[in-house]
Amino acid sequence: DDWWFRFAWAWAHTESGRIADGRRLMEQAFTLNPRNANAVHGLAHVFYEEGDPSGGVKFVTGWLPGYDRAASLHCHLTWHTALFQLVKEDVARARAAFEDGIRSRVATLAPATNVLTDGVSLLWRLLLDDEEVAPSEWKEIAAFAAERFPGTAPHFHELHCLMAWAAAGEWGLYERRLGELRDRVAKGALPPGAVVPALGEGLGAFIRGDYAAAARAIEPFVDDIVRCGGSHAQQDVWDETLVAAWIRAGEPAKARAALEKRLARRPSPRATRWL
To answer: Could you read off the pLDDT of 82-91 as tens digits, one per residue?
Structure first.
C-alpha cells in the first residue's frame, strides 16, 4: 500500500497494455499522496494510452503550477503537456510548453536526460508534421548533447544524440557516434543489439531526405524498437519516423498497415490523422 510502490506497480500495468488496471492503481497512488509527481507522470501515460489528449493536458496542467521547477520531473511533465497539445494539433501551445520548460536554455534545473530526450523528440515530431523548426533550435540541442553526453551513454540517450546531430547537420559527431555503436554491437557490448545503429542510420537518412534508405534501415528492426528503451510514448517517435519515411518514399500501403496496427492496440488521434 506504499504510494510509491503503488505507482510503480501501476506503471507496469499501463506499459504492458493493461490500461484500466494501470489507471485504477495509479489513481490509488495519487490519492495516497497527491503531491506524488510519479503518479502524475503515470497518469499522463494512462491518458496517452487511452487516446485522450484533452483529458491529459487538463490534468497535468492543472497539477503542474504547484510543482517546483527545480524538481526532477518538471521538464518531463511539461513535455507530456506539449505532446498532448501536438496530438490535439495545437502546435502553438506545444511550442509554448517547449519554450517554457523544455528547451535547453531555459530548463537549466532539469536532469540532462530529460532536456536531451524531451527536447529532441518534440522537435523531431514537429519535423515529422512538416512544422518549421529553426536551424538554431537544432544547433542548440545538438550542442547540449555534445556537452552533456560526450562519450558512451545509455543507448536511449545515444539515439537522441544522433537525432540532434543529424538534424543540426553535425555529421562528424553523428558518424563518429554511429561508428562507436556499430563497434559495440560487433563486440557484443550493446545489449539491445543491431537495432540501435540501424535505427540511428535510418534517422540520419531521413534527415538527408533519402526516405527509401531510411525505411530500408529501420523496417527490418521495427519489432525490436522496444529494445531501445523508453515508454510507448517515447518510442512512438521512431515508429512514426518509419511511417513518415514510407509515405514520403511512395509506399503508402506499408504506412497504412503500421497505422492500423497501432490503432488496433490503442486509440491514437495522431495515428488516425496520419491514416
So the answer is: 999 999 999 9
CB neighbours of residue 52 within 10 Å: 17
How far is it, in rounded angstroms, from Cα 10 to Cα 95? 30
3-state SS class at 1: coil
Q: How far apart are CA 92 and CA 113, in angstroms?
A: 25
Distance from C-alpha of 266 to C-alpha of 49, rounded to nearest angstrom: 6
Q: What is the DSSP letter of 110?
A: S
Measured between alpha carbons, how far is 43 from 97 in angstroms, rounded to an integer?
A: 19
Task: State the Cα–Cα distance between residues 236 and 213, nearest whole angstrom.
Answer: 20
Cell numbers that stand for 148 in this block: 552533456
**Residue 107 confidence (pLDDT) above 80:** no
Write out the DSSP string of 118-180: HHHHHHHHHHHTT----HHHHHHHHHHHHHH--S---HHHHHHHHHHHHHTT-HHHHHHHHHH
The CA distance from 74 to 99, in Å, is 13
**HSE-up (13 A, CA, CB side) for residue 160:** 28
Show the cell assigned to 142: 545538438
Is the CB of residue 177 less than 8 Å from the CB of residue 158?
yes
Q: Distance between CA atoms of 44 and 97, rounded to whole angstroms?
A: 15
Q: Which residue has the cell 512544422?
A: 131
Contact 101, 83 (CB under 8 A): no
pLDDT value of position 152? 85
What does the angle CA 122 – CA 264 – CA 205 come to, to the nearest 5 degrees? Answer: 40
pTM of the model: 0.96
Q: What distance in Å separates the CA atoms of residue 125 and residue 187, rounded to the nearest whole number?
A: 33
Which one, of 229, 261, 250, 227, lies nearest residue 240 by Cα? 261
